[in-house]
TrEMBL record:
Annotated keywords: Cell cycle, Cell division, Repeat, Signal, TPR repeat
Signal peptide: 1-19
Gene: cpoB_1
Cited PANTHER family: LIPOPOLYSACCHARIDE ASSEMBLY PROTEIN B, TPR REPEAT-CONTAINING PROTEIN PA4667
One Gene Ontology term from the biological process aspect of the record: cell division
Superkingdom of origin organism: Bacteria
InterPro entries referenced in this protein's UniProt entry, alphabetically: CellSynth/LPSAsmb/PSIAsmb, TPR-like_helical_dom_sf, TPR_rpt
SUPFAM superfamilies in the cross-refs: TPR-like
TPR repeats mapped onto the chain: 510-543
Protein name: Cell division coordinator CpoB
């Protein structure tokens, strides 16, 4: 027992000293004290040989320019362990550093020649070349290694990494795709590399290679169409991605989830044609009881509505076709809690686009009174109904509904929205002080949109209240805003004209110009709207509407007037020259998106 204890103590002390010597040698090497490092690494290698100690010993000699001694010890070790092919790489590095390029290449080639069908040896040699950034030689090792072990795809992922480091796009793509043959579970890794390292041309190359593989693939591997669909999405080719998704959905007898996801992505990218085609495929090919059928029906309607109303040209016939689709949906699924959201969308179409307020209010009244409706959806129906009552001049009904939602959802964003609309109603009616007090509270809302709008109106009232003793000018302006809200645009223009004539030179002049721009924009007269916003910017440099006008004008150039460069310029002006504006953050995001940055 005593002998065993002393033996363990000596062994433990020896191991401890070895670890200490290694740490000390490492410190000397990192500090550039190569003489001391060489001495310690030599002792460690003689005591317990491993490649790391030996390589560090030789490297220390090379740093000390003791090339003859370094060559002597490398040759000696090669005789002892000729199967250790990394020694040839070390020898070649030594010769190269000493100016013997031809001798170095000879050693490198000898290392590759001596390769055996041993995965560990192949990987070890390739890594030795990688450490010297000799990527071509490492590639050669893996390619020869694949032939030796009779598996061309065994090192495909390693080859992909090497080609990536070299910046060789086409072979990098080929290698990564080869790697997926044996390791399909690494598809997410490959997608991450493609997303990070491929530009548009690189993605097009990947697309070309995938098309070729699909045509040549006799096994009908679903991996390639899946990758191709992903690449097409990166290129924003949603129609192409949809073709692949539909093919996979049919081949694998899926439930439509893949196709639904393409529809969502296309809709968010405003490729409404592709989105509608995706949702229609699910409706036409899946059972009504399947998990995505009803949602595809809903999203198909919503996307059709967005396609018509999202700033694009449309006719009354387009609106009537959409109206008919909504009614078909409600006839199929009934007017019930599950279809309540669709009914709210239909009411919006009737009120805001077909100008049938009576029909819109009738639809919403039914939703508000329906048993079993989710309370949040019911509250949204109440808010919309209150708006439409206000558009018809029924102020009491509006404020009653706003107040109900405010009370029910006091600390919720819905409650904040209801409170804002009620305060705006008070502003329309001329109760400016009470409205401003509510807007001041809502400036702290967690909803940026509500907070921004509340701040806007609060500053506007404060800026204009008391400019004259009767506040007639401000009330006239509020009347014009209400008329715009009610879609009575001709009357709104006439009211603004009256204001300008009655109060020439009034401080509201810039606001009048800005509001005219908003009305023209509602009427889809985008050139006229742009002229009004530009007038605010050019004529009223101290206007509180100036940042709003800049943002609105930039939005017009971006979305409707098809001048992305001008939009980018205006967004940049806004966030640089008006950095204190509540719109500066959004302007910066828009600017970066137009510039092509990845906006988080």
């Amino acid at each position: 027992m005593l002998r065993q204890f002393f033996l363990l103590l000596v062994l433990g002390t020896s191991l401890g000293l070895g670890a200490q010597s290694n740490q000390l040698a490492q410190q000397y090497y990192m500090d550039g004290e190569y003489e001391k490092a060489a001495e310690l690494y030599l002792a460690l290698a003689e005591e317990n040989y491993n490649t790391f100690y030996f390589d560090r010993y030789v490297s220390s000699l090379m740093n000390l320019r003791q090339y003859d001694e370094a060559e002597r010890v490398v040759k000696k070790q090669l005789k002892r362990t000729p199967e250790e092919l990394t020694l040839y790489v070390t020898y070649g590095q030594l010769l190269e550093q000493n100016g013997d390029e031809e001798g170095a290449q000879k050693q490198y080639r000898q290392a590759i020649k001596e390769l055996r069908a041993d995965k560990f040896q192949i990987t070890q040699l390739a890594n030795a070349f990688v450490q010297l950034t000799k990527y071509d030689l490492a590639i050669e090792v893996y390619e020869r290694g694949g032939k030796l072990i009779k598996d061309d795809t065994s090192f495909a992922f390693n080859l992909g990494d090497l080609y990536r480091r070299k910046g060789a796009t086409a072979p990098m793509i080929t290698s990564y795709l080869d790697a997926l043959v044996d390791e399909p579970e690494r598809i997410r890794n490959v997608q991450t590399y493609f997303q990070r390292f491929l530009d548009r041309d690189g993605l097009l190359e990947a697309q070309k290679q995938l098309y070729a593989r699909i045509q040549e693939d006799r096994k009908d591997n679903p991996l390639y169409p899946e990758m191709l669909g992903w690449v097409l999405i990166q290129n924003k080719d949603y129609k192409g991605a949809l073709r692949q998704a539909r093919a996979l959905d049919k081949r694998l007898d899926e439930n439509g989830e893949r196709v639904f996801d393409i529809g969502t992505l296309a809709g968010n990218a405003r490729d409404y044609e592709a989105a509608i085609a995706a949702y229609d495929y699910i409706v036409e090919n899946k059972d009504p009881a399947s998990p995505y059928y009803l949602e595809a029906k809903r999203e198909g309607l919503l996307t059709r509505r967005r396609a018509i109303t999202d700033g694009y040209a449309y006719t009354e016939e387009d609106l009537r076709i959409l109206e008919s689709a909504y009614f078909d949906f409600l006839r199929q699924f009934g007017n019930n809690p599950a279809s309540a959201r669709i009914a709210i969308q239909l009411a919006e179409l009737e009120a805001l686009y077909l100008n049938d307020l009576e029909k819109a209010t009738g639809i919403l009244q039914e939703i508000v009174g329906l048993n079993g409706v989710n309370e949040t959806i019911r509250a949204r129906a109440k808010l919309a109904l209150a708006d439409y009552y206000l558009m018809q001049g029924e102020v009491w009904e509006s404020t009653l509904l706003y107040s109900q939602v405010d009370k029910q959802f006091k600390e919720d964003l819905l409650g904040h929205e209801a409170r804002f609309r009620n305060a705006r109603l008070s502003y329309f009616r001329g109760d400016f002080e009470w409205a401003q007090s509510q807007f001041d509270v809502l400036k702290a809302s967690t909803s940026r949109l509500i907070a921004n709008d509340a701040l806007d109106l609060s500053v506007f009232i404060l800026d204009n209240l008391g400019l004259d003793t009767t506040a007639v000018a401000l009330q006239t302006y509020a009347d014009a805003e209400l008329l715009m809200f009610q879609n009575r645009y001709d009357e709104a223009f006439a009211t603004l004209d009256t204001l300008v004539k009655a109060f020439p030179g009034h401080d509201l002049e810039d606001d009048v110009v800005y509001l005219r721009g908003k009305i023209y924009q509602r009427l889809r007269q985008y050139e006229a709207a742009a002229e009004q916003y530009a007038q605010v910017i050019d004529t009223y440099p101290k206007s509180i509407r100036l940042d709003n006008a800049l943002y609105a004008l930039a939005g017009l150039y971006e979305e409707q007037l098809d001048d992305k460069a001008k939009a980018q310029e205006l967004y940049e002006t806004l966030f640089i020259d008006y950095s204190n504006s509540i719109l500066a953050v959004e302007a910066r995001k828009k600017y970066r998106a137009l510039r092509g940055d990845a906006v988080q």
